[in-house]
Amino acid sequence: MEITLEVNGRTYSIAPAGRRLLAVLRDDLELLGTKLACGEGACGACGVLLDGRPVNACLLFAEAAEGHEIVTIEGLSTGRAAAVQAAFVAEDALQCGFCTPGQVVSATVLLERTPHPTREEIHETMAGNLCRCGAYPKIERAILRAAGEA
Amino acid sequence: MTTRFVKTQKEMEGRYEDVWALVDESDETTSWKPDADLSLVGQPAPRQDGAARAAGRVRFTVDVKLAGMLHAAVLRSPAAHGTVRSLDLAAALATPGVRGVIGPESELSLTTRAPLLQAEPAYAGAAIAVVAADTLEAALAGVAALALDLEVLPHLVDMQEGLNEQRFTTDPTDEARGDAEAALAAAAVTIEFALDTPAHVQTPLEPHAAVASWDGDELTAWVSTLGMFAAREELAKAFGLRKDAVRVRTEFVGGGFGAKQGAGFEALAAAELARITGRPVRLVNDRHAEQLDGGRRAATRQTVRLGADRDGTLTAIDADAVVAQGQGGWVMPVLIPAQTLYRCANVRALTFPVKTNLRAQNAFRAPGVMEGTAAFEQAIDELALALNMDPLELRRLNHADVDQVSGLPYSSKQLLACYDRAAELAGWATRDELRKPQPDGLLRGMGCATQIWWGGGGPPSHATVRLDADGNATVITGIQDIGTGTLTSAQIVAAEELGLPLSQVRVVGGDTGPNVYGPVSGGSQTTPSVMPAVRSAAAKVRKTLLQLAGDVFEIAVEDLDLRDGRIRSSDGAIDAEVTEVTGKLGDATIDGSGSRGPNPDGFVVHTFGCQIAQVAVDVGLGEVRVERIVAVHDVGRIVNPLTASSQVEGGVLQGMAFALSEEFIVDPTTGVPVNAHLDDYKIPTIADMPEIIIDYPHVPDANLPTTGTKGLGEPPIIPTAAAIANAFAHATDRRAAALPLTRARVLETLA
Ligand code: FES
Ligand code: FES
Fold first, then answer.
1. Do the interacting molecules here have an ipTM over 0.85?
2. Which atom, in ligand 1's list, is nearest to the CA of A41?
3. Helix (H, G, I), strand (E, B) or coil at B23
4. CATH number for position B217
5. A150: Cβ below 6 Å to ligand 1?
């Protein structure tokens, strides 16, 4: 059975065959920026936007994404997202970079909802995005920088 | 150019071996002077590939896709110990989409690492069979069709039980100098401290992964590894190939922290299945497999006895460590801190490597030394308490001026400066104020710990630099970028030496194809090994460029200088873009290659540091909150302070989690790990982060060629847990018998 997915403003016909959205994005659409790190909903490396809300694509069945607007890291390169990315580079808020696309997705949404977040708000929103390299101090600074506060 | 062999010592995580180093006598050998006027080295620079990383455009091994590529799935032992009664390889092969299956009995073309697959798996997660299929789903269906029938055998996972039964992976070691027993008996003050440290899983977010593809008798393997040249060697040996018939590509690695060594099971199995099926094969661990079989820092049970004079002078150290090795692996140097951290004439160190039904332990950032420091540095604090001395003062008093094992001087040691700076930044002098009743009802305390590690690097390490007509330089290295920012450091060093802006220098690595050797990313040796080679290669290009400039401008080369991308004469008459010279090259290039010279004779090279932790303890909840860590590490010259501080922060956070939350738990009844997932193995989140204050003595190591830099990968993880535990004891007057300081353990300790 085929379904239609809207990803980064384009329409795709795919056969999900019971797979998760992440597998479809990575394997069928070759959108490889979104990462699989746990497949257990525990790390946020697979974060994408579903109608502007961040979701873990490793948990969501692809069928459930039909009729929703999906944006992946590949679709985030302008406006606030670009500011977040530039701040991540300037502050070195990335080490191996494997968690980074997910961090950028979450940070972009955070700033859209809360343009001037406090440290506590950053911690609360970003706690679902694990970084084993420990880039957290600089992720916090990058978000503050992108918010124009550092 | 004259090439010579020089005998030198090579060190990797404390293991020394004599090697012949190939030395090019035209290589740059003099170090930058401590006060050298450097314009780029020492200045913060963002990563050369930062924008690509932030945009999700860099490709890790898990992102490699090849035409016709198969996906492999692994059948792993569900039991800690067992023997395969039956395995239906034919049924797996008959599963739709399955193209190849290997099991313990399969005839394999690879010749080493035998057996690749286990007929008698000796730990939960041990690989028994691998299935390759058109899709991962089909491969998993093939694994199910194998219908494993495993007879479960008795297991042993408790290290005390292993010790009692004398089940060792290798013979216990007994290292001594002086007479610790007699010195303890004669000591005015003695203490004894025992600590259990947890098994600690590296947990890189990109799991172990490999993609293998054959073209006739030539193999290309994309491997998520810390050592692509080691992987090449291993694959060439395993398949009986010439070295240059194997190409390993490792451009970006999603973390490793010691775990991903050489080719690993993944690349060997993928290459074998690719050979059998005639198709490229990808093998990627899922998270559960990664946690079970990716590796870990071994759990230990340590006891430290110390003896001292009334004035605090250490007279005796007697330490022993039981190390839960699992199925084997080399024995980590757990007792190195006891043997080398302080001046002491009478030392005994006994290590018992116990064999248990877990995977062989492997390297995890500062293997051995970190868990050894966690116990030994708490013992030093206990001694300070018994002596009624300031813990930092006791450490200063027992400072080791020379290496305690060899008696040789250190190439450079700024530990006393680290103590002073850390104390100043942390407010150590007034730390007892923290113990006064606090408005928020929490108990606060401050503790310190000392760090020692190797980190001097050494040969062999090579680099080549090419300058093109357009004035852009390319540096080719053998570095695999695991997130440390080493490529960017190489960019800075090359640009400094070439006199070019950073934007005109690009560094490549991650491919054994060019055959420019670089070391494994481990042991804090990449920076001190690779940077001198890069500098040397760049120096040759600079020299040639200036010679050519002399030809073009018809002026003596001695009168020319190259800086900030411009060639200038001393009289000011010439001030030209580099391209005025390089532009005449046409399709020719200026090339230079450099190698890392030998380490100086007669010195021991180490890194040092001190961390001070401030914690707040909620005695009702048992929660320990780390409020601040001050980290001051002596690693010689800092090339890029921006990425250096990232290394320190990462190490501190992993050390903090070792102290507070991370513990790989094995069910003693079944022998099976119970938290081999990311949701129940508790790595820190951004909300757990303390304030981290970082500084360095900024003293280049004048005895190290040629950049004065040492490694910074391991040092920052080493003292964090001990400093936190010491701060906890300062706050509560109690010391836990084991780490991590989970709520349950804290409540038990305070009860
Ligand atoms: S990969 Fe989806 S949450 Fe970890
Ligand atoms: S940068 Fe490596 S996991 Fe976050």
1. yes
2. 3
3. strand
4. 3.30.365.10
5. no
